[in-house]
Design a protein that fits this description.
The complex is a heterodimer of chains A (about 400) and B (about 350).
Chain A lengths: L1 H28 L6 H4 L5 H10 L6 H12 L20 H20 L5 H18 L17 H36 L4 H15 L2 H20 L19 H39 L2 H8 L4 H29 L3 H6 L5 H10 L3 H29 L7
Helix pairs in contact in A: 1-15, 5-6, 7-8, 7-10, 7-12, 7-15, 8-10, 9-10, 10-12, 11-12, 12-15, 14-15
Chain B lengths: L3 E13 L4 E13 L3 E5 L6 H9 L7 E10 L2 E2 L5 H7 L4 E4 L13 H12 L4 H14 L5 H4 L9 H13 L5 E5 L7 H18 L2 E6 L2 H7 L2 E6 L2 E7 H6 L4 H8 L40 H5 L5 E2 L6 E2 L23 H4 L1
Parallel strand pairs in B: 3-8, 3-9, 6-7, 7-8
Antiparallel strand pairs in B: 1-2, 1-4, 4-5, 9-10, 10-12, 11-12
Helix pairs in contact in B: 3-4, 4-6, 6-7
Classes of the chains: A mainly alpha (about 400), B alpha/beta (about 350).
C-alpha cells in the first residue's frame, strides 16, 4: 500500500513537471507580453527596460523556466528581496508535520481497521489534517510577484482560496445531497413518471452552459423575485455586503447565505445532474445483478436489499467521480466566480490570463494540477476501501 | 405416496414485452412429495427457470406476472400470501441456488456476513450462535478451514467453492424445498460431479426435497427420483427416472434422450439433434407446440393442443395424441425403424 502510494506520488510529480512545461510554453506562444500594456503609455518608456531586466524577461526561455521552477519549490527566506512576507521558521513546520501525520494515520487505519467504516474515517482524518494545515499556514513559497503589482503571488492566491473553498464545497455538498439520492430513487422507480422527469431535467441542466444557468438564476431568483415580492432574498455579487463586520452573528449568517446561494446553486445544478445520471446507471446495474437476486431469494426485506446490498456496490463508481470533482473545485469555478463577482481563485485566474501575468497563471494552473494528482490518489485509495476486490500491488 | 409438499396447479406466468406477451409458463401442473428429488429438464426458454422464480415469488410486476394458477406449499397458496409472509418462506422454507456462483454472491461482503444474514433473519438466534451455525454449514459442504474462510470475500473462493457456499447458504435454515437452477452449468466437469454428490448426500440426510433444473439428462439420471420434461412453457412428459429413460412416451423426450452423448456406445455415428428450433413464446403454433419439429405429427396434432394424461407405466404422464400408437422405445432416433433403440435408453 505504501509502496503503491509512493509510486503514484512519483508518477504525479512527473505529470506536474510535464504540465508546467506545457503551460509555460503555451503562455509564451499565446502572443503578447506582460509589458505590452505598459508600452502603450509613453511616460512608462524609461522604465520598460528596467522592468524587463528585473522580471528576467530578457533571459532565454529555458532560463526563465528554470528560475520559475526553482523559485516555485523553494520556501521564502528572509534574504529574498521582495516576494516573501514570511520567513521559514520552526512554527512553519506544523502544517507539514500534520500532513505527514495524516498520511501515517491513513496507512495505519487501512492496516488495522477491518470494516467499511475505514473509508469514512480516512476521509475525516484527511479533512481535519488539511484544514488544520491551512489554518496554521504561515509558510510561504517563492512563487514570484504579480506583474500587475498585486504583490507576492503566494499571498495573492491564498487570500482567495478561502472564498473558492466556501463556494466549491457548498456546491459539492448540495450536488451530493440531492444528486445521489435522486439517482438512487430514479433507478428504483425506473421508467416511472418521476424517473422520466428526472432524466429530462438532468439532460437539460447538464447541457445548458453554466453562464446561462447563472444568468437565469440571477434574473429569476434575484431580480424578478424582488420585483414580485418586494423582498431582497439573494445578492448577485460578492461574498458579503460592506459593513459585514458590524452585523450581529445571525445577520452575518443570513448575509453569507444570501450571497452564497445563487453561485453555489449554479455550480451544483450541473454537477448534480451528472451525479444523478451516473448514480442511476450504476444503481440499475446493481439492481439487475445476480447477487441482488440472491439477496431477494434469501427472503431479505426490500429495504435491506436496497440499503445493504445494492447501495454499497452502486456507490463505488461514484466515489471516483466525486473525488475527481473535488480537484476541479479546488481549481475554482472560473466562469461562475466571474459572473457572480466572487473573489476566488477562478476570477483571479481570468484576470491574470487577460493581463498575461505569468507568475499568477502558472501558480494557479499548478495548484489545480496538484489537486487533481492528489485526488486521483485519494480516489484510488477510497476505491480499494469500498471494494475488497481491489488490491494494490 | 405421502401428502404433497408442493402442488402447482395450472400456473401461467406471462411477460409483457414490446413485441407482445411472452407466455413463458403456460398452464403447468405438478406435485412434489416431501423429500422428493425432481428433475426439470428442457431446452433454454422452455420455462424451467420461470417456474422456479414463480414458486419463489421472484417474478416482479410489471415486467412479468403470474396470470392464473395456484402454488400450494405445505397447505398454503403462496400466491395469496403478503410480501412479508412470503419473505419468511423465501430462504427459510424454500431456498434457491442459482446458476452462476461467480456472480451470485455480493462481492463487497464476506461469506460469513452473507451466510449469517440469512440465519439471523429466519432463525431467532444471536449473532454468536448464527456464526456457529454458519461455520457448521460451511463444514457440511466440506469447505476446509471453515472458521477462517468465514472472513473471506467471494473473490477469494474458486467457482466450485462459491457454489458450495451457495449450497451452505441455501441449506443453512433447513428448508423443506431446495430449488437448484442449473447449479453446475458454470462449473467444470470434475467439480460438477463433486457438487452433485454433495447435494445428493445433504438432501438425503436432511430429507430436503430438491427441484433440480437442468438441461443435462446425465445429471438428472444420477440425482433425481422423478423427472418432468418441459417444452415451450408446458410440461410434455413426467414420470420416474426409469419411466422416462426407458419408456419415453413423448417424441420430444425421445428426441432428447437420443441426442445424449454416450460413452458406452461403441458404434460411431453423428450425434442426433432435434431439427428446428423451439417456437416463439409470443406466437405459439396451433395445436401441439412440438408439432412443427415432430416427425410423427398428424392432422389432430395440428388442431388440438394435447393435455398431459396418464400413459405408459403407472404414474407416467405425457402430452401427446399418439403415445399409444407409437412404440417410441422400439425406434431409433436415426430413423431406422426397428433398430435396437433400447441401446439408446439402456
Amino acid at each position: 500500500m505504501l509502496a503503491y502510494i509512493t509510486r503514484r506520488l512519483v508518477y504525479g510529480l512527473v505529470t506536474l513537471l510535464a504540465l508546467s512545461i506545457i503551460v509555460f510554453t503555451l503562455l509564451q506562444l499565446s502572443g503578447g507580453g506582460p509589458l505590452d500594456r505598459l508600452k502603450l503609455n509613453p511616460r512608462m518608456a524609461p522604465y520598460i527596460q528596467a522592468l524587463t531586466e528585473q522580471w528576467g524577461l530578457d533571459q532565454p526561455l529555458y532560463k526563465q523556466y528554470w528560475t520559475w521552477l526553482k523559485n516555485y519549490v523553494s520556501p521564502c527566506t528572509s534574504t529574498d528581496p521582495q516576494g516573501c512576507t514570511t520567513s521559514f521558521g520552526l512554527k512553519n513546520a506544523i502544517p507539514i508535520v500534520m500532513l505527514v501525520l495524516a498520511i501515517a494515520a491513513t496507512a495505519f487505519v487501512i492496516y488495522s481497521v477491518k470494516s467499511h467504516w475505514r473509508g469514512a474515517l480516512i476521509l475525516f482524518v484527511w479533512f481535519v489534517a488539511i484544514l488544520f494545515a491551512f489554518r496554521n499556514m504561515s509558510i510561504a513559497f517563492n512563487w514570484g510577484i504579480s506583474f500587475q503589482g498585486a504583490g507576492p503571488v503566494w499571498d495573492l492566491v491564498f487570500s482567495r482560496v478561502g472564498a473558492t473553498f466556501r463556494l466549491g464545497f457548498t456546491a459539492l455538498f448540495l450536488a451530493l445531497m440531492v444528486g445521489i439520492p435522486l439517482g438512487i430513487y430514479q433507478a428504483i422507480r425506473q421508467y416511472s413518471f418521476f424517473d422520466q422527469l428526472g432524466t429530462t431535467a438532468a439532460f437539460v441542466a447538464f447541457s445548458t452552459p453554466i453562464f446561462v444557468i447563472a444568468l437565469a438564476l440571477q434574473i429569476l431568483l434575484a431580480l424578478k423575485l424582488e420585483q414580485w415580492t418586494g423582498v431582497k432574498l439573494f445578492y448577485v455579487t460578492g461574498m458579503n455586503n460592506p459593513g459585514y463586520g458590524e452585523m450581529s452573528f445571525l445577520q452575518q449568517i443570513a448575509d453569507t447565505l444570501q450571497h452564497l446561494t445563487l453561485p453555489a446553486l449554479s455550480i451544483a445544478l450541473i454537477s448534480l445532474a451528472g451525479y444523478s445520471r451516473f448514480q442511476r446507471a450504476s444503481m440499475l446495474d446493481v439492481l439487475h445483478s445476480d447477487y441482488l437476486r440472491t439477496a431477494k431469494a434469501k427472503g431479505l426485506p426490500r429495504r435491506r436489499i436496497i440499503v445493504k446490498h445494492a447501495l454499497r456496490n452502486a456507490l463505488i463508481p461514484i466515489v471516483t467521480l466525486v473525488s475527481l470533482d473535488v480537484a476541479f473545485i479546488i481549481g475554482g469555478a472560473i466562469i461562475t466566480e466571474s459572473i457572480f463577482g466572487w473573489p476566488g481563485i477562478g476570477r483571479l485566474y481570468i484576470v491574470a490570463i487577460g493581463t498575461v501575468d505569468y507568475p499568477v497563471v502558472m501558480s494557479i494552473v499548478m495548484i489545480i494540477g496538484i489537486g487533481i494528482v492528489i485526488m486521483n490518489i485519494v480516489a484510488d485509495i477510497l476505491y480499494g476501501v469500498m471494494d475488497p476486490r481491489v488490491r494494490y500491488d | 405416496m405421502s401428502e404433497a409438499l408442493l402442488k402447482v396447479e395450472d400456473l401461467r406466468t406471462y411477460f409483457a414485452t414490446e413485441e407482445g406477451v411472452v407466455r413463458a409458463v403456460d398452464g403447468i401442473s405438478f406435485e412434489m412429495r416431501r423429500g422428493e428429488r425432481r428433475g426439470v429438464v428442457g431446452e433454454s426458454g422452455s420455462g424451467k427457470s420461470v417456474t422456479a422464480m414463480s414458486i419463489m415469488g421472484l417474478i416482479e410486476p410489471p415486467a412479468g406476472d403470474i396470470v392464473t394458477g395456484r402454488i400450494v406449499f405445505d397447505g398454503q397458496n403462496l400466491l395469496e400470501l403478503s410480501e412479508d409472509e412470503m419473505q419468511s418462506i423465501r430462504g427459510g422454507r424454500i431456498a434457491m441456488i442459482f446458476q452462476d456462483p461467480m456472480t451470485a454472491l455480493n462481492p463487497v461482503y464476506t461469506i460469513g456476513d452473507q451466510l449469517m444474514e440469512t440465519i439471523v433473519l429466519h432463525q431467532k438466534v444471536s449473532k454468536a450462535e448464527a456464526r456457529e451455525i454458519a461455520i457448521q454449514a460451511l463444514r457440511d459442504v466440506q469447505i476446509p478451514n471453515a472458521e477462517h474462510r468465514l472472513n473471506d470475500y467471494p473473490h477469494q473462493f474458486s467457482g466450485g467453492m462459491r457454489q458450495r457456499v451457495m449450497i451452505a447458504m441455501g441449506l443453512s435454515c433447513s428448508p423443506d424445498l431446495l430449488i437448484a437452477d442449473e447449479p453446475t452449468t458454470a462449473l467444470d466437469v470434475t467439480t460438477q460431479a463433486q457438487i452433485m454428490d454433495l447435494m445428493l448426500h445433504l438432501a438425503e440426510d436432511r430429507g430436503t426435497a430438491v427441484m433440480l433444473i437442468t438441461h443435462d439428462l446425465g445429471v438428472v439420471a444420477g440425482f433425481c427420483d422423478t423427472v418432468q420434461v418441459m417444452y415451450a412453457g408446458g410440461i410434455v412428459e413426467s414420470g420416474t427416472i426409469d419411466d422416462i429413460y426407458h419408456n419415453p412416451q413423448h417424441p420430444y423426450t425421445w428426441g432428447l434422450l437420443g441426442s445424449m452423448t454416450r460413452l458406452d456406445d461403441a458404434t460411431q455415428h453423428r450425434l442426433h439433434s432435434i431439427s428446428g428450433a423451439p417456437p416463439s413464446l409470443i406466437k405459439l403454433p396451433e395445436g401441439c407446440r412440438f408439432r412443427p419439429r415432430c416427425q410423427f405429427a398428424t392432422d389432430i396434432c395440428r388442431q388440438v393442443l394435447p393435455v398431459l394424461r396418464p400413459v405408459g407405466n403407472a404414474g407416467q404422464m405425457a402430452a401427446c395424441h399418439r403415445s399409444e400408437e407409437l412404440d417410441l422405445k422400439a425406434l431409433s432416433v436415426d430413423g431406422e425403424v426397428g433398430a435396437a433403440a433400447s441401446e439408446v435408453t439402456s
